[in-house]
């Protein structure tokens, strides 16, 4: 178990490491025009980085999710995306169903 | 100073059938419980969401502490996993820019930049007059940020009542929500290529390098998508 000072230091370091990227982004944004090529490139990179993070969260999850089967996570994901499209892009229904479905399938 | 009506429009994105409140609640409740496990007290848990407010980084921090990693290692690991916030900010803030707005609004509100708030802002900014878009963003940011902090505290307090099956259930909610939002954002070919390419390359590169996977996958898939867009003259 980490001591209290280490925890406070870790919170501080984590927050600084995170804020650097946000603040640099705000500074860079001042020089980037919406109609420029570079803006479009950043837009594509932002979406693909996010998609990479999500792909990793499903295939190689950290924490408790790693205790569920990959195939079950994929079934839940595909089912919920289908639900999202069928419900005309309702987000509340597929998110609630995802937790219930994963729980049911994991204990089946 | 801040256009209250537009600010409230942003804040109200928490309501309705596209509300991010449930996925935010699910993942920050799970985080609160995890932080308790990692030896945090309730103030430290709330402070973590208050000052960091970026879930993957907070998870990395908690897990690094549990395995006894050094502070410098935590810094590097968090920086790498949260570096995505840089391209995300650059692909959002120019859309919110207006010369009549003071710079401090941008410098302070960049703290609200996280996946949830970003996806909501990208989805809704067009409906808002360019002059007041930053206030719309601040509304979204305050709403999602305060929900995250509150839910971290609730997760901490309810940690003893959450069994492992419940935590696994909570953990899937957030990726499912994000994937649905991303599918909703795939309105043109280049974004679709970026999303599909990233989803495939992220886990694939992770097999070779756990730390650099996100950065490389994002750069490669994003650049391919961008070149595709250029080729089609869009």
Commentary on this structure:
The complex is a heterodimer of chains A (108) and B (234). With 108 residues, chain A is mostly helical. Chain A has three domains: 1-31; 33-58; 68-108. Helices cover 75% and strands 0% of the residues of chain A. Chain A contains four helices and no strands. Chain A has helices at 4-29, 37-59, 70-86, 92-106. In chain A, helix 3 (70-86) runs antiparallel to helix 4 (92-106). The two termini of chain A are 35 Å apart. The model of chain A has no long low-confidence stretch (mean pLDDT 93). Chain B is mainly alpha-helical. Chain B folds into two domains: 4-172, no CATH class; 186-234, no CATH class. In chain B, 73% of the residues lie in helices and 0% in strands. Chain B has 13 helices and no strands. Chain B has helices at 4-11, 21-37, 42-51, 55-66, 71-82, 85-90, 93-96, 103-109, 115-124, 133-157, 164-185, 189-206, 213-231. Chain B is globular and about 50 Å long. The model of chain B has no long low-confidence stretch (mean pLDDT 93). At the A-B interface, helix 1, helix 2, helix 3 and helix 4 of A face helix 2, helix 3, helix 4, helix 5 and helix 6 of B.
């Amino acid at each position: 178990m980490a001591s209290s000072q280490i925890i406070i230091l870790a919170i501080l370091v984590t927050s600084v490491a995170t804020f650097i990227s946000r603040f640099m982004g705000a500074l860079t944004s001042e020089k980037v025009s919406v109609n420029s090529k570079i803006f479009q490139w950043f837009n594509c990179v932002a979406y693909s980085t996010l998609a990479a993070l999500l792909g990793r969260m499903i295939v190689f999850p950290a924490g408790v999710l790693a205790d569920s089967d990959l195939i079950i996570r994929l079934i839940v994901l595909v089912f919920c995306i289908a639900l999202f499209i069928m419900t005309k892009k309702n987000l509340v229904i597929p998110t609630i169903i995802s937790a219930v479905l994963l729980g049911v399938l994991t204990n089946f | 100073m801040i256009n209250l009506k537009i600010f409230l429009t942003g804040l109200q994105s928490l309501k309705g059938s596209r509300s991010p409140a449930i996925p935010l609640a699910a993942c920050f409740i799970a985080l609160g419980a995890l932080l308790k496990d990692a030896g945090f007290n309730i103030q430290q848990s709330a402070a973590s969401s208050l000052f960091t407010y970026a879930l993957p980084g907070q998870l990395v921090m908690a897990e690094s502490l549990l395995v006894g990693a050094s502070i410098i290692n935590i810094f590097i690991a968090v920086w790498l996993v949260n570096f995505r916030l840089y391209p995300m900010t650059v692909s959002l803030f120019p859309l919110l820019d207006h010369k009549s707005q003071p710079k401090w609004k941008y410098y302070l509100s960049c703290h609200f930049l996280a996946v949830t708030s970003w996806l909501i802002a990208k989805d809704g900014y067009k409906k808002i007059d360019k002059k007041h878009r930053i206030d719309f963003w601040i509304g979204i940011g305050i709403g999602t940020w305060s929900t995250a902090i509150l839910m971290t505290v609730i997760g901490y307090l309810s940690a003893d009542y959450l069994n492992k099956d419940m935590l696994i259930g909570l953990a899937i909610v957030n990726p499912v929500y994000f994937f649905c939002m991303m599918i909703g954002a795939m309105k043109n070919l280049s974004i679709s290529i970026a999303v599909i390419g990233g989803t495939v390359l992220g886990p694939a590169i992770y097999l070779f390098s756990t730390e650099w996977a996100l950065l490389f996958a994002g750069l490669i898939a994003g650049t391919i998508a961008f070149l595709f867009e250029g080729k089609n003259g869009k």
